[in-house]
Amino acid sequence: MSAAPPTASPSAVPPGFKLMLPNDGFMSNNGPYYLRRITEGGYAYGFQSDERHRNPNNVLHGGAVIGFLDTIMGHFAASSAKRPTATIGFDCRFLASAPPGAWIEGRVIMRRLARTLAFVDGEALADGKLLVAASGIFKVFEG
Questions:
Q1: Cβ–Cβ < 8 Å for 84, 141
Q2: By C-alpha distance, which of 41, 43, 40 is closest to 16?
Q3: Which residues contact 39 (CB under 8 A, 6 or more apart)?
Q4: How far does Cα 12 stand from its chain's mean position?
Q5: Given a cut of 50, is residue 1 above it in pLDDT?
Q6: In 3D, which of 94, 93, 75 has the Cα closest to residue 138?
Q7: Got the DSSP string for 24-51?
């Protein structure tokens, strides 16, 4: 049986960030993930990377960052629609790398919210450097 994944120490999490709930399943294995309200309906997201997120090149594995982006973009879509959502399309561009141990912050923008679809853009950054840009389409389920 494997040990529980490490959690970010409170001192590693920037001020104002709270644990994103629920934070179980994949989120607990890749995260935990955090969020901070920045505007009415808007959030900044983040997670503390560590050695679990390292690839053979000693930088963050793209899958760790993509999993984070998919989760926060889906969260934002569901929060905006006030209904459950699921990813139906996801496109990303890898622009830079970061070492394990970097605080990864996510930003999300709603491009369009329709009755059954949400079009969302997201970015993952480390120390202000853009790592990954993504676009997603999310199915919005009936209440």
A1: yes
A2: 43
A3: none
A4: 17
A5: no
A6: 75
A7: -THHHHH---EEEEEETTEEEEEEE--G
Tokens 């120390």 identify what position? 127
Mind listing the domains of the chain with CATH numbers?
18-140 (3.10.129.10)
* Cβ atoms of 48 and 33 closer than 8 Å: no
C-beta atoms surrounding 120 within 10 Å: 26
Worst-scoring range by mean pLDDT, 25-29, 78-82, 136-140?
25-29
Instruction: Give tens-digit pLDDT for 43-101.
Output: 999 999 999 999 999 999 999 999 999 999 999 999 999 999 999 999 999 999 999 99
pTM to 2 decimal places? 0.89
Q: Which of 39, 108, 116 is nearest to 81 (CA)?
A: 116
Q: Cβ contacts of residue 87 below 8 Å, gap of 6+?
A: 70, 73, 74, 136, 137, 138, 139
pLDDT tens digits for range 108-133: 999 999 999 999 999 999 999 999 99
Least Cα distance to 41 among 78, 7, 14 occurs for 78
Other C-beta atoms lying within 10 Å of the C-beta of residue 102: 20
